[in-house]
Each structure stands twice: as structure tokens, then as C-alpha cells.
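Thread: Modeling a multi-component assembly for a lab meeting

Hi all, long-time lurker, first post. My supervisor asked me to bring a structural picture of a complex we are working on to next week's group meeting, and I have zero experience with this. I have the sequence lines for every component (947 residues in total). Could someone generate the structure of the whole assembly? Inputs are pasted exactly as I received them:
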Amino acid sequence: MFKYLSKSLELLFIGVVICCIVYPGVLWLAGQALFPFQANGSILLGSDGKPVGSKLIAQPFTKDEYFQPRPSAASFDASASASSSLAASNYALRDRVARTLGPIVKYRSGPKGGQLVGPDVETWFQNDIFQAKPRIIAQWADLHSSLAQAWVKADPTHSAYVDHWAKAHPEIVAGWINNNPATPEPKTADLAVLFFENFSNEYPGKFPAAVTRKGADGKQQTILEPVDSGADIQSIFFDMWRQEHPDADLQDVPGDLVTTSGSGLDPHITFENAQYQLERVASKWADDLKRDPAQVRAEIEQILQKNASAPWWGLAGDKFVNVLEVNIELKNRYGTPS
Amino acid sequence: MMFLQVWLLPIALLATATILAFPLSRYTAWIMDGKYRPLPVFRWFEKRLDSGPQNWKQYAGSLLLFNTLMFVFSFLVLALQPWMPLNPDGKTLLAPSTIFHSVISFMTNTDLQHYSGEQHLSNFSQIFFGIFNLFFSAAIGFSALSAIIRALRSDSSLGNFFLDMWRVVVYMFVPLAFVIGLIFITQGSPMTLQTSHAVSTLEPGAMGTRDTGEIKKQNIALGPVAAFESIKMLGTNGGGFYGMNSAHPFENPTGLSNFFNTLAMMIFPFALVLMYGRMLGRFKHSLVVFTVMLVLMTGTVVWSICFDTLKPNPGIAGQSTERNYEIPSATSPGKVTVTLPAVASLPVDQHLGNLEGREMRFGTSAGATFAALTTDVTCGAVNAEADSLNPIAALSPMTGMWLNCIFGGKGVGMINMLMFVIIGIFIAGQMVGRTPEYLGKKIGAREVKYAMLAVLVHPVMILMPTGLFAATSWGLQAISNPGAHGLSQILYQFSSASANNGSAFDGLGVTYGFWNAAHPGPSAAAFDIATGLTMVFSRFIPIIAPIALAASLGAKRSSPFGLGTLRDDSFTFGFLLFGTVVIIGALLFLPVAALGPVAEHLGPIPFGG
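Re: Modeling a multi-component assembly
Sure thing. I ran the full set together rather than chain by chain. Output:
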């Protein structure tokens, strides 16, 4: 028995030396000597010679002049990769996709072909009737209580708004406590559904959204106000609108534009996705540079073509482009967007 | 073109791995039979390690003893993380239950991770805890299979455990891992001792700003990824350097690296089946077993591609018509009608299949192919989020784990299949009323008991804890998706633990994090301990029992080959084995499959919210 213990210890020691020191050491030397660019994270430099990111890691872009990567469940945090882990059957997935779609989807055919559906969603929302019953927001909160709660938690101004409302409506809060005796002190999010039901009554056809305006002291400030149009309504209520208009002929959006990647750091988008964004990107640059949109568009399309590649030269998958590389090239050619 | 883009990758993978299995199995058999002449320096090490011929109890004892030492060493590495070098970010101590879980997980070749590598481990831990276990846990199963083969062919001893481990690690894993690691570096896997690189993004401020007004940088985690990655795949370990494993662009940078990633986890499980035949002198028999495994594997791959790559995500696609199910009422006689209303489709082009949780650079069917293969060979790496697989497609990876012998892990897959061989022959013997024989040895009550023990541990260790967690707040607090998928998350977790697989439905809240974590998963500690114990039992019982079985069988006298002997290299035998695996291995899990993925598939979709 003692013999086996000493042999085990020897094996452990030899193993640690070989597998944890010699093997990684030699590979480290080989990598640093032969492939220093890859071995150090494929870091790309901007025109000023400073590192701007890794070729393999997606980074966010907010300006319309740039192509945008796929949505990231990791918020593009390259030190904490994450997927959405949303099941196909989870309503949260459908809701997230619908919210991305609402403000960008266009009609494919008919008299409105090529126009955004967003304004129609707003008009429908202002009518405040869903499946022949009035009060859309109240029905939304009843159907999707977790989304209503998520809205309250999403932003401190939201929960402050609901808190303020709760103080003004003690009788409703008392009614909630009556129905839920186990929770004598409800959290703000617990009241979300009641809040939206009541809100729907007081402001039919409106939704609380952030509005920026001049305050009494002359400073810009952001406050929540009942509004009847805007991005919030177009995105949050697009799915309900769609349920009532299942036959409206809409343009399909590329799948990878609305789905998160496995790592949250996927640096690529499909070529279709890039072409879908091309119109926005090109017209924005043309605006900025006061140039002919068609010409800018042709130039940028060339950049896309040049940067496109495909798994196994197209035998194993569709073409894709690297968003960061394309955007670096855009910045190098056209300068910093205004 | 679409047809080619979908099917070329899986066909190329299966074909390449099959072709490579022939020469590789010749090499591994040559090494394990000790027919090589080692270099003088290696000979010196071999002499030091070789403690002489061992019988089955000595071999199994050495194996358990060495695992105990591995446990102690790995535990120390993780427990001392804050005080060890290569930790410039000051990564602190993991929660004790997570250390316990991670150490067992890596020691048993499972590599189920309740932590996230880039967030929770220093480079020192990644190397001395991670890479060490990746090599040695993989060598354990390999050595055990070699011992079983020697016992079955009635060798005078089972060989020597320490010598076997040396041979596997030094003559097979290290050189191959080096080559594959170099390929990964060329594709873009980092190989550095730096921990991170902070960059100012191309669009300043796109990452947001801090409360102080300072612009946030993007912090890119780096490390010795290539060295980790190659043995992680070769050893069918599957524990990632990064949280998102082979989906992470640094672990798997290109379509080409994805091919080698996938191939690397297949070659040893493929080769070991043929090595079994070569060392026993029954090559044709191993070809039959190989074919049965290949058929099962093709089935799981085709299944997941058909339902994930060739079908859209059902939550987004909606459902154009109302569906009605008539089901028996649970409370009164007669039937009730359940109506699933029509759901409008969202305008999304899904011709590439379900893209939620997929990466674009690997190829169209790469996610689905990988998901099936990784559980068949019990690797457990993932290159796409398994949680987001289409519901019915998820049956494929689950089946891979439930059967646990479709090539299976390094060595242990063949061992598991051997148990099905014994049971299959026993059942066939009962059916025709003859004494069952394998390799000319009579299978007695003792052997069947050992085989049943090894086979039954698996369903018990999956179904009982799944039931326990599904019925208590432990499970209910952890699930992140509503409805049947929540059960699937728990079921997958324990299937993965028991199959020593390591992939997971990542939404399950099993991460405690550092010991002082502000918001640990509420039942993370319960999962740490339960899956930790599951892994231990499901690892060592199905290794020790077969060694005992083989020793008992090998000690018997060979009976001559007669007219009534069931030939073990015939089509009939292959069919018998296939039936045994499918009926005995899979039927046990049919009820829980119906409650999880099948129920989710039937709808309603979307659910909850």
C-alpha cells in the first residue's frame, strides 16, 4: 500500500512538471515566437496606432454610421462571456426579438410597401383596443406580469415613478396587501400589474416613457411622462399588434440581427445582415459627408465584399463579415462620425 | 448549396474520425501492449513508476488512490488561489462548495463548471488545476480500459496502473495536444500569461461611461487558452477556459478551428473501440461494435440537425393554425380538449435555422452537430448554447448522455458498451436457452450482477436527484425558463453529471461564485454537492465493477467454439447489441423525456411570460 502511495506521489509530481510546466511552456514559446499576433489576442490597431479591440471579439457600436454586431447577452463584456440561455419556448425570447423588430420592420408589399410599421403600431396603440377589449396596457400587464415587473426594475426612474404612484393610491396598495397577506410590505415590482392597470385607466392609449425636456431651472432633464408614440411603444407592443395583424405582409429581418450569440462576443454578422444595415450606414455617411448616397453606398458595399469570408470557402456555411474590421475601415476612410 | 452547407461538415467529421481510428488504434495498442522501445530518458521514468504486475484489486486500488491524490492536489490549488502567483487581478477564493464541486468535476473527467473560467480562476489555477486534470482524468479511463482488456484475454496480470498512466499521457496526449494547440494558435487562440488587455473601443464611449464620467474600456480576458483548449478536446474533458466554452471566439476562433475542435474530441473514443479489438485479437468483433456506435451517433447527429438547423426557432416562427389535443382527463372519466391558439410569426428570416445562441463563423450546422457529438463522446464542450436548442432537438444530446456508450468518453465509453455486450449476450442466451458465452468464457450470475450494477448506477443517479430537485425549492429556485423546459434544465444537469459529460443548460442558476459573492445562486450549494456526489458514484462504480467483471471472466476456462455459440462478429450480434442499448439504455428515460423536451415541443410555445 505504501509502495502505491509513493508511486502515486511520483506520478503526480512528474505529471505536474510535464503537463503544467513543460507542455504549456513549450507551446507558449512556440506561440510567442511564431504567431505573436494570435498568441496575444489578435489585437487590432486604429489609424493612430493605439489598440481598438480584438479581431475576434465583438464590441458595441451605437452610431448609425457603423455596422452593428449581433445583440450580446454579455453586454460585450469580454471578461465575462455569456449566452442568453433563453429556451425557444420562453416568452422572454419572443418578447426580446419582437422589441428589436418593432422600430425597424417594414411592409414588404401593398400600398405601404417599403414603409415602417412603427407608425401603424402607434395608431393602433392610441385606439387602445386589443382583441375587441379596451385598455391595451392593462391587458399587456395581465398577460405578461413578468415583463411588467421587469419594466419596473429596469431603471431607477421607473421604480421611482411607480413608488410615487403607490403613495398617491394607498387604497390600491391596501387592496393588494389584502389579497396577498403573506407579503405585508410589497416591493415596488410586486405592484407592477396594478400600476399598469390603473395607468391604463387614467391615461388611455398612453404609456410612461422617458422624455427629455427643459426643466424649471433651464437644464435638460429626463422624466417619465405618459406618451402616445415613440420607440417604447413601437417595440414593447409590436408583438401584440402582430397578433392582431397576422396577415400583414412584412419584410423579413436577417435572423442573426435579432438573436444573441453563444458567447455574447461573436464578432461576425451574416452578409445578408450587413446588406440589410447597408442602407442605414450608407445614407448616414452620405449625410455626414454631404456626398452622393449612391456613390457612398457602392464604396461601402465594396468594403463589405472585400471583408467577406465563409466557413470552408462557402462549403460549410454562408458568407459573413467581421464587424470591427469593416468599421475600422469605415473610420479610416471617412473619419470620425459627427 | 444549402444541402451541402448543412451536411458536409458532419459527414466530413464522421468520415475523418473513422479513417483516423484505424492507424491511431494500431498505435495505441502498440503502446499499451508495451511493444515499443522507449528512449533511455523515458525508460528511466518508466522504471521509476513501474511498481510491478498488478491483479485487479491492486490495479483498482492504485487507480482510486491516485484519484484521491488528484483530489487533494486540485483542492489545494483552488483553495490557495488568492496566495498563488500568476494572479495579478487578485482573484479571490471560490465558495467552498464550488471548490468541492469543481475538483470532483475535473477529476472525474466531467468538467461540469459551476464557475466561469475567465471570471473566477487565475491563470495559475487554469494551468495547475485545469490543464493538470484535463490530462490525467482522461488518462484514467484509458488505463482502466487497457486493464480490462488484459483481464479479458486472461493475461497473467492487468499491467501496471502507473506505467499505463505514463504511457497514455506522455506517448499520446502530450504530443498530440501540442500539435493541436499549435493549430489553435494559428487560428487565433491566445497563448500568453497575460490575464487581460483593456482597449478603448473604436467608438469611444460605446461601452458606456462610469459614474465618474470616465469612458469604459473593453476588458479582454486572455490567458494560456491554446494549451488548455487542445487537451480539453483531446481528453474529451470539455471544461472551458472561458465560461462559454468552445463558443468563445478565443477558444474556437474560426470554422477551421471548429473542425479540429470537434475532430479532436472524436479521435480517441473512436480509436479505443478498435484498440479493444486489436488487443483482444478480435478485430472483427470491435468493427461490429464500432459500426453499432457509428449508427447510433449518426442518428443523434441527423436528429439534432433536422430539428435545429433545418427548423426555425418555434418561439419566433409562431404557429399558423390553432391546434387541439384530446387527452384523457386526470380527474374524471372521458377526455378533455386542450386548445393551443395560433401564434403569429415574427418577420425574421430563419433559413439558417435556430440562431439563438449560435455563432456565425463555424458553419450552418456546426452548432447542432457539435451538440450531438459532444454528448455522444461525453466531452461536454459546447460551441452553441444548449439551453436555446429547439425543444425536440435537445433530445439528441440528452440521449447521448443517457446511453453514455455512443463511443463514449475516453475508455469508459467502450467499458460501458462492454456492459451492454454482456447483458445483450445474457438476454440472447436466456431467449434460446443456452449458457451465454463471451470470448469463449461462460457468463455467470456474478458477471451479470457486476454488469447490471455498472449499468443501473446511471439511471438511478440521474432520475432520483432530478426528481428530488424538481420537487423542492432547490430546483425551482434555480431554473431560468418556465414550464417543461425548467424540468429539462434540472434533468440535463444531472444527466450531464452522471454521464461525466459536463455540458449544461446554462440558464440554471448553479453559480455561487466567490465565497463572498453578493448574489449567489440561491440553491447553488445544493447543486454543487448533489452533482458532485453524482459524479463520483457514476464515475467510479462503472469503472471498478467492470474491472472486477473482466477479472472474474478472464479467470474462467475457455470453452471451445461450438455450433451453438453466438458469433460476436456477425450482423446478428450487431443487431442484438443495438437493440439492447436502445431498449435497456433508452427506455428507462422515456417517461422523463416525455415530461421534458417532448412536452415542451408539443407546446404551447411561447410559454409563460
